[in-house]
Specification:
CATH topology of the largest domain: Rossmann fold
Number of strands: 12
Order of helices and strands: HHHEEHEHEEHEEHEEEHEHEH
Distance between the termini: 64 Å
CATH architecture of the largest domain: 3-Layer(aba) Sandwich
Number of domains: 3
Radius of gyration: 27 Å
Number of helices: 10
Strand content: 15-25%
Strand order of the largest sheet: 7-6-5-8-11-12
Shape: flat
Largest sheet: 6 strands, mixed
CATH superfamily of the largest domain: von Willebrand factor, type A domain
CATH class of the largest domain: Alpha Beta
């Protein structure tokens, strides 16, 4: 019998194939280039020249051919009609989920469980005696027949009400979430890329909900001068525009979306790095980029108060350290009775997922 053979660990060894190693880099570049395949491949060529990603046995052309064979890209390269496929879009979301969610610490919370028993899809291991008002589908017939045999014997078998045993299911809450992403020009100012981490968080959150919480809903709203909804498949292509920050338009659209959702648990996550600077009054845009304009701020605070009345908590993730901006966020949060996190870019994902997972243990009625 042949046993296991152990060798000395070599940290330089990599179990991934050359294609898999280059695919990881390709997926990262696609996110940074907002889905621009040509630009991502040009960056890969430049990195190949500098760091020798390929060799005589496996070149960049082989990598592109393998991308086509495995369904990551499609089209005719000679005609310039080449683009990423839905498989790549989903792959980016999965990798974002692994990159962000995989770094979180283990907790006892999560999975949207509540402390309330009720109709659900997860059986409770404990049983109890039948009570008036229990539904027929809650009866555990195996346990009830066993009780009847013990209480009355096999020869004179009969089943009475006191023999019936009920198996409860644990209630799980359903949540509707709107994720608001600021795409104003300040998200790329001062030499700092803030939109890419925001996109990664949005892609990871959407993949988490679709795979682990399929009964939940996630809507994504982007806001600049105006606000509009986007689909999950559009996230890799999201770019910052020459916009001001119309936070009011984003909140109004988020509230309108949640108003149409029937379940009682609703929440808004807002990722922003700057102050609200814009309003749309009729067909005219009212803008003020200097300081916190009271006309704009008051509209934001009024909407925060309306969300509070509708039992829609707002969690703000502020990617800024300016004291006067933090003061505004604190005022906004107090008006809504929500939460605020002043997150650095590398901690943004951990903050959002921790709050999303732990916050579902309470049900809002």
């Amino acid at each position: 019998m042949r046993g296991y053979q152990f060798t000395q660990f070599n940290p330089d060894d990599n179990s991934k194939s050359r294609f898999e190693q280059m695919l990881d880099l390709f997926m990262q570049l696609i996110t940074y280039t907002s889905g621009d395949l040509s630009e991502a491949l040009q960056w890969m060529n430049e990195l190949d020249k500098k760091y020798q990603l390929t060799d005589d046995e496996y070149g960049m052309g082989d990598f592109i051919d393998e991308l086509k064979e495995k369904g990551f890209i499609s089209g005719d390269n000679e005609k310039g009609e080449i683009k990423i496929t839905p498989k790549t879009e989903q792959g980016i979301r999965k990798r974002s989920l692994d990159e962000i969610f995989g770094k979180l610490k283990k907790t006892k919370q999560g999975d949207h469980k509540t402390f309330k028993p009720g109709q659900g899809d997860e059986l409770n291991p404990e049983s109890r005696q039948f009570q008036f008002g229990d539904m027929l589908e809650q009866i555990d017939f195996t346990e009830s027949i066993r009780n009847a045999q013990i209480n009355h014997g096999i020869d004179s078998f009969q089943m009475r009400e006191e023999d019936l045993s009920i198996r409860e299911t644990d209630f799980k809450s359903q949540t509707s979430t709107v994720l608001m992403i600021d795409i104003s020009h300040s998200m790329i100012l001062y030499g700092e890329d803030r939109i890419t981490p925001a996109k990664k968080v949005a892609m990871a959150l959407s993949e988490l909900i679709q795979t682990r919480y399929p009964k939940d809903t996630l809507d994504i709203v982007v806001f600049g001068n105006d606000a509009w909804p986007i689909e999950v498949k559009d996230l890799p292509y999201l770019q910052v525009g020459p916009y001001h920050t119309n936070t009011v338009a984003g909140l109004e659209l988020a509230m309108d979306i949640l108003r149409r959702r029937k379940n009682p648990n609703k929440q808004i996550f807002m990722i922003t790095d700057g102050k609200p600077t814009c309003l749309k009054i009729g067909k005219r845009y009212y803008k003020n980029s200097f300081g916190l304009d009271r006309k704009v701020v008051n509209r934001c605070l009024n909407l925060a108060a309306q969300c509070k009345k509708l039992k829609i908590p707002i969690t703000t993730f502020m990617i800024a350290t300016d004291p006067y901006l933090q003061k505004f966020v604190q005022e906004f949060t107090e008006m809504n009775h929500g939460k605020a996190f002043f997150a650095s870019l590398d901690k943004l994902g951990a903050f959002i997922f921790s709050d999303f997972e732990s916050g579902k243990r309470k049900t809002v009625y």
